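Hi support team,

I've been running sequence recovery on a batch of backbones for a student project. Most finish fine, but this one hangs at about 90% for roughly twenty minutes before it completes. I'm not sure whether the input is malformed or the queue is just slow. I've pasted the structure tokens below so you can try to reproduce it. Let me know if you need the job ID as well.

Thanks,
M.K.
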């Protein structure tokens, strides 16, 4: 469903991504971990089109999207969340979801008609809020939501485009333990047909969610395997998890 083959990226003389390859079948929950400076965010930006690779190729459901723009990738089925929330803070939860739903329904360009004229859109917004456990917050301005709830909403916006692949960039970063648990629950309830690639610093979260994990170290793939293989690897323990039991 989603693959990267031999990706390379340098900034001047600094090589950040070295021949990185990933293969994600449909429905895979795949984790991406590594110490600070390992190149995780650069790799995500290559996959989403924010950066162009110096070499290599990216495929989405068999189509070569290496040179596609970020918005073209979204239209082709690639969704993402950001490391920092990317929401309309002055608008309500309902309004944020309505904008995303209107774009998916291709009525965002009908600027002379009120969204109240589209009852199906409102039904979809309510259903989405229920899935996200945000029904009670529909009319709350986003700026008044907790950080964790805002993160849930951002994933909800990405889901409105009905992606086949979803990239999650540090979804639990900065969350309280309770918010982290809520986010884990949300990710686990996403459709099993949805392919997910997740960067995550919380090892308990990544080992709980991921079926397979890729470990980056200075832009290289240090190891790829099942969570048990990664947990038991002396290489990973030395470079990332620490040496103590």
């Amino acid at each position: 469903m989603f693959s990267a083959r031999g990706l390379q990226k340098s900034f001047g003389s600094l090589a950040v991504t070295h021949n990185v390859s990933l293969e994600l079948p449909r429905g895979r929950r795949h984790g991406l971990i590594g110490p600070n400076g390992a190149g995780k965010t650069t790799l995500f930006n290559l996959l989403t089109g924010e950066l162009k690779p110096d070499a290599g190729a990216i495929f989405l459901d068999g189509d070569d999207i290496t040179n596609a723009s970020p918005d073209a990738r979204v239209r082709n089925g690639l969704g993402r969340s950001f490391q920092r929330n990317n929401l309309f803070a002055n608008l309500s939860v309902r309004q944020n979801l309505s904008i995303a739903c209107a774009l998916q329904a291709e009525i965002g360009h009908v600027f002379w008609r009120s969204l109240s004229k589209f009852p199906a859109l409102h039904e979809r917004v309510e259903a989405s809020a229920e899935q996200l456990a945000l029904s009670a917050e529909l009319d709350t301005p986003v700026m008044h939501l907790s950080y964790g709830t805002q993160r849930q909403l951002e994933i909800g916006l990405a889901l409105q485009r009905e992606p086949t692949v979803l990239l999650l960039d540090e979804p639990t970063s900065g969350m309280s333990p309770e918010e982290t648990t809520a986010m884990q629950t949300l990710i686990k309830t996403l459709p099993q047909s949805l392919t997910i690639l997740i960067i995550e610093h919380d090892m308990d979260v990544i080992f709980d969610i991921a079926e397979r994990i890729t470990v980056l170290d200075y832009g290289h793939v240090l190891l790829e395997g099942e969570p048990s293989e990664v947990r038991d690897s002396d290489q990973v323990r030395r470079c990332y998890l620490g040496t103590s039991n």
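--
Follow-up from support: It reproduced on our side and the slowdown came from queue contention, not your input. The longest helix spans residues 119-131. No action needed from you.
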